[in-house]
Batch of 3 targets.
Target 1
Amino acid sequence: MEACALHRDWIGTNVAGSAWQRRDDNRERNMKILIVDDHPLIREGLANVLRELDNDLTVIEAESGDEALAALEREQGIALVLLDLVLPGADGLSLLTQVRDNRPEVPVVVLSGKDSPHIVRQAIDSGAMGFITKRSATSVLVSALRLVLSGAVYIPPQALAASDTPPLDPAWEGQHVATGRHPTLAELGLTERQVEVLAHMVQGKPNKVICRDLGLAEGTVKTHITAILRALNVTSRTQALFALSKLGVQLPFDFRSRDARRPYSEPGRSG
């Protein structure tokens, strides 16, 4: 990875079968990020770069799927997982699905040496909130992670260009060409409640969990999902993620605050 320095100060010892954790002596950590990669140099370089996100960051490292799952079970308050899809003894996509099932509130960003549109789509299908190639510049990595942590979705431009996501309504496409501005979700016709449902969909939560979290009947959630897909002119969660990435939409979910139900900042209608 470009511009990844390899110097860190560590406290503690390496314990077999467990992830490493970096700490400062007298500081309480605000945010934790788990890096899952079997290459020590990659992990060390990433840990250094991640300081640009937050000086008070705790970086947890895992070199295998088992270590990653153990860290997720042991550590509370993990804000994000950076996951390499190629790990010894593990299928990356299966591990991604397992991480999302075990900790659905934690966004996962795939970090991969391969970036074909097919692999990107597979990762998004499996629940990833972002996909970053290892050839990306440090500035791209940091910006992408900030997007995901704020509730947005990051998909590489080349994957977006190759996607088969249907365009928005021709009237909106024409306005974008004329003004350079994408429509907001409210302008697309989504109510505040539908935006809340969309935020949960993006996290990969099943309908029953969305019902529980928002206190809605399952039929109501299904009705909202139908309206959301229609407004975005898509037919699946994956297509919705690609559409949101193209729009540059920030959903009402800040993964750093762990609050999926904070008030939506964009003007809209209640629903």
Note: Residues 20-161 form a domain with the Rossmann fold fold (CATH 3.40.50.2300).
Target 2
Amino acid sequence: MFAQGLPLEVVVESADPLRGLGRVSLRGLPICQLYAYPAPQRAPDTPAFIKENAIEFGLRITSLIYVFPGRKYRSISTITWIDGLAPPAIRDTRFREIQNVADFARKQGVGAVQGHIGFLPEKSRRAKKIVNLVEKIVDHLAQHGEFLVLETGQESGKTLRRFVEAVGRNNVRVNFDPANFALYGSYVPLQAFEVLGDFVMGFHCKNAVLPGKDARLGTKFCWVRAESISPSTSQSPKPWELRASLRSSGGS
């Protein structure tokens, strides 16, 4: 356990959730995150089915992860235009999709929806439109005591913090993924944690190498040690550095 109140959890794919929940249970883990079913597969009885099986396995699902169709993680420029709420042409459709996932999560007894909001523009005028949309989303969630949890890495830690503060709602949190900062070359992970630590609700643990000169996305792979990569040097700091940062914030 890296930090007090943040036990180790894993992500379960929606393609075969029962098998995934069973594997989590066999490994003795008490909680997990679950990818949301694609819209065509959201049968009315699915939430109750998942909820009953999670209880039977002795698991608590902490968040439902929304994933938009058509994602192509080939290059940073491609992701900039197709991911999250950032693309103007499909922003309203995705706004409704997050609301639908939130309603689906509530029926499963899950208290949070989670995912990338998309590349946040640095200029305040463009960012304001996304802020207004996210305000509507989190107000919808707040009616049912739910949280919106934002993934890190596509923008700098400072940009994401400014965005969360601009939304100004108590039910907006961050899922801290240090490897994503390396994948996108957006920020030094340890510095990002210092900036975002007040809002962190969970962690994703994987490793990554920096993007290449061809602007392709960096490469991710599984990891078992806490380590991060500095976008300025492509060298990994000592593996205990992230642990030490977490510990200094009240972890163990």
Note: Residues 209 and 219 are 5 Å apart (CA to CA).
Target 3
Amino acid sequence: MMIKRRALLVLAICIVLLFGSTMRGEEIASEKLIGIKYFPGDDDENVYYKSPPQMVIDQKGNIYSFFRNEHFIFKTDKAGRFIKRISQKGQGPGDLFRPWKMKIKGDKLFVLDAIAMSVFSLEGTFIRKFRIFNRVFNFDLFQDKIILLDISKDSLMVMCDLTGKRIKTFGVKYKPDFSKFKTGDKYFVEECLNEGTVICSEENIFFVSYLFGDVFRYDSKGKLIEKKKLKGIDSSQVKRNIDYFFVNGPKEDDKLGQKINFWPAISDIFYHEGSLYVLDTKQSKNMGQILSFAIKSLSLKKIYCFGLVPGRESEAIAPYFIFPRKTSNGMNFYISMYWNKDNYIALYKTKK
């Protein structure tokens, strides 16, 4: 009975979202995702997460995942069964030191950690590595290039070839009014302000701001084409962040560097086959949502709502990362979850 009530509640919220969009003259489709399972299972001792895991998935459905502050990658099959660990702690060839982000391109796995970019085969064989001397927050792969999000200089992004040779820098950073901040660490203020990610489609490079929902579209040469704001994300958080960085600044009792008094409007974002999938921070105890945007127009196409997967009904929604994947039967969404010191990956599907 309790499970049925939760399902009805999630469905009702989806209907409200759809009805509200229609009332504003927008035809936005909405769909409730079906929770399938979670992993690792309670009896799996080979795979564990001490923080919300990040993941990528290859064409065979194998899952590569890691959690921050650890130094290796789990490889599991599509059912979540353990296959192997890739890498170990260190700074030499084949080692990792606090992985931060990873991507798959063809038959290669690119892993960004705190000091370098490493490339492995999907079987875990080390291929090459190049050092990164600035703090890089994110990256993506664009054609035969790597795009790094690096705010250490005047620009926002760095374009490299696949061996790490720098080609050019481009992109404009947000600039705060430093007079509103008591801290002398201007780099730290800029780091917080420019929290976001690099996303690459087949034709364009994007920077997406997690704080403001702004999308900057660049061409293959790094020239800015347009700036657009994503509609449908949590506007109250966006307004709060604008006020914090550009209008009033921190409150008197804030100590930037010890207490951060803002929160992203976007948890995670992923590009897949013509669409941007945005994991919204706007959620309730029993419902989260993913917004789907057309990559060419950046217009909102669909809202996917999700509740808890079987076996986790007594908990609450606390999503961190997503990985969408089209299948012959619709869409699969892998969502990284956290609840009460327990971290896992939940699998959701659309209806056939």
Note: Residues 2-23 form the longest helix (22 residues).
